[in-house]
Amino acid sequence: MIADARRISRRIPAVVLGGLVLALVLLPPVVPAATPEGPLRIGLDPATALMGTPFSFTVTGLKPGERVVIKGYTSDHRGLAWNSQAEFLASARGAVDLAQQAPASGSYSGTDIFGLLWSMRPPDTPGKRPPSFATDETNGWTVDFTVTDSAGNTATARLLRVYQMPGQSLVRIPLREDGMTGFLYCPAKGGPFPGVMILGGSGGGLYEWLAQALASNGFAALTLAYFKYADLPAELVEIPLEYFHKAAAWLKSRPEVRADRIGLAGGSKGGELALLLASRYNDFQAVVAWAPAAHSWEGLSKKYFAPGYRPLASWSLDGTPLPFVSFKAAQEDKEKEMKGELNSFVELHHVSLDKNDPALVKQASIPVERIKAPLLLVSGTLDQTWPADEFCYEILERLEQASFPYEVRHVSNQDAGHMSFLPYLITANTAAINGGKDQANAAAGFRSWKEFLDFLRRHLCK
Length: 462
Hints:
alpha/beta; Immunoglobulin-like; Rossmann fold; 2 domains; six-stranded mixed beta sheet; 10 helices; 23% helix; globular; disordered N terminus
């Protein structure tokens, strides 16, 4: 192991119920017939697992037709409490299965295994916009459930979704050379592993939790910062594509990485960037664009609101800004955005495409047909950050016209929003600018994550 690598191992707090947890995890998938003498029990399987792992949720030890109340509780990274509740009627076998039964009443309706998660809400804040859930990017999600039967008996269980399993060791290798900044995560044993470069979006910085989750799934994952971090540029303006090409070369040079099996995954502006990079360089054997654009768009600068602002490109190549579509925003919308009152940027993107010079729009279109690798696109139909679903269909049409020879898969998540490509457990009160319905966002996240891992394994784990 190299000198600057350090071994890290997560420890998950033990569930208070001790031995009961083991019993929960080992419950068979078929719910046994219950008798009144049987113990009241919640079955979560698996109770502790990596981010994005599906689960079953059953309650046993009830009388047929008995009313039972299930409550969910968690606290977010800010310490804000979130709760949900639903009442069920036990089946003829004295059991409740959330994957097959709808609640009689509660915080959600309809049959939905994720119902008690996406319907969680914080305490009311009259006169204020409801807060969104602050995800813990170190420990993942911990949700406690309590079931109470008609006699007042209770049972509890805990659901954990983590980035790294208890007892699992990963290696974290810093990248701080030649102007590059990031961290490479990979399993502590075995290798070399297929590599994946992760590109964030307009938030900037690093996504270590995502790299950690990918490493836990057997990849060597590099989270690469390119602005708003340490001594990197403060704004997403004229970021050189050569920076990422250089980082890909570094990743391929690592002894932990299979140089001939490198993937690229980017979300939002990072999805736009992933398509650009893959169309310019042959560094990647699999490309994933989450909620991407079909064009290069204007850079993101705080000067956008200042008088006399001049639009700048997001990206550059060989010291020259790349052609881009500039925003054509009404002053009224700019004022709403400054106040945090603008709930959608979709119309802004439609208007900007219409009002820019058609020749310039054509120049700014990403030449995705030049990509020499399989491609996975993921989008939500109610994305309010930008119309990513429409953009994905534009990309597909361009690839079809070019008779693109590689696999192309588009996961279009109905009624889901901008961030529905990741398996967040608590999706209520998603920031309006992300869009989507809580229920759809929850299901889409799990579906998209599975598609993502399957795609990477199919093309990088040969």
